[in-house]
Amino acid sequence: MTTAKKQGVFRLSLIGCGAHALDYLCPPLSKLPEVEFVACCDVDEGRTAQAMRSFDFQRPYLDYNTMLAKEDLHGVVIAMPHSRLAGAAVAALRAGRNVFIEKPMAASPAEAREMRDAAKKSGASLMVGYCERFAEGRRIMKRLISEGAIGDIVNVNAAKGSPPLLTGWQSDPAMGGGPIRWVGSHVTDQVLWMVGSEPERVTADIAWRPKGGVEQDVSYTIRFKNGVLASFLCSQQVGAVDFVEVFGTKGRVRAEWPPEYSTIPGDTVTVQSAVVPAYANPTTIVPGAPHPSNMYAAELKEWLASLKERRPPAVTIEDGNAVVTILDAVYRSARSGSPVTL
Ligand SMILES: NC(=O)c1ccc[n+]([C@@H]2O[C@H](COP(=O)([O-])OP(=O)(O)OC[C@H]3O[C@@H](n4cnc5c(N)ncnc54)[C@H](O)[C@@H]3O)[C@@H](O)[C@H]2O)c1
What we know:
The structure is a single chain. The protein is α/β, with parallel strands linked by helices. The protein has 2 domains: 143 residues, 3-Layer(aba) Sandwich (Rossmann fold); 175 residues, Dihydrodipicolinate Reductase, domain 2, CATH 3.30.360. The chain is 35% helix and 25% strand. The protein has a 9-stranded mixed sheet. It has a 6-stranded parallel sheet with strand order 3-2-1-4-5-6, with helices on both faces. Helix 1 crosses helix 8 and helix 5 packs antiparallel against helix 9. The longest helix is centred in the C-terminal third of the chain and has 20 residues. The termini are far apart. Nicotinamide-adenine-dinucleotide binds next to helix 1 and helix 4.
């Protein structure tokens, strides 16, 4: 079903009307006057009905191929179980639709490559929803590093906890479940973004859940080509831990969510610097950030701005691909007991 395009309006559809899409992605999009919600799609009719009730979608679909064939769209927002993300993205990209896709974008490097090839062929763009890059504390941290406040990066330490993934697809390995993809993807992306060098080697170990096939706790390290070492923890047992700490030749900087991150605004940044006199002693910066859900509004605005300005988005398909490659290496290293050279 094609309707006349209105000038300056983004005709968007949603694939996957689950919790994240309806609670965090659709609300900020629905507030933007330049967004027109065209259609929503989910295999579960109850979820499309919920999306139609909550937002101004014009039509529901149960099959995204039918939706992509019938609707004239600028872009598609995809938020589905991890093993299903790539299939929908490839279909949308092949149909020439720009994509905003939830992390980790794909469940395997082969899927990620297929997405990249589809995007190259059609010329459509794809942004990955690594929302924490848009959290104010992480942006302050990135700026301090870029301005040289800590000198050259030497070492990174990062951790993120996930809620216990006890049920449903989030704890099903066949659906791409498990904390490595659920939360490890976020911290891996941030560290790649901060370090800015190519990863060379991954070494990992996994404590598997006593019951059920996904991992409970995971430790891994990345050695970068510039010699930087980064170590990571992602775990189902440590609560809402979320920090990235970067050590440099002239100081260190750490951004951290408060434990009550869903109710208390923003994350804090602690910096100590031998070159910025104001930070000679460890100093904590509390960003004047509004609610953390603002990072979702910021990432979606960036996606739409990249479409309007016909430029690559802030988090590209290559960025997503790099994370998927690392996560795959984490599993391979843990299973083989040996480092994986990339
Ligand atoms: N960035 C963040 O902070 C954040 C937070 C939570 C979740 N997420 C991401 O969002 C995505 C979805 O997670 P969620 O918590 O919303 O999961 P969810 O289970 O609540 O929702 C997934 C939806 O996809 C639908 N679905 C499954 N197969 C489908 C298909 N073939 N076609 C159409 N719909 C289909 C399901 O019926 C369900 O409604 C994941 O990639 C997850 O990692 C991101």
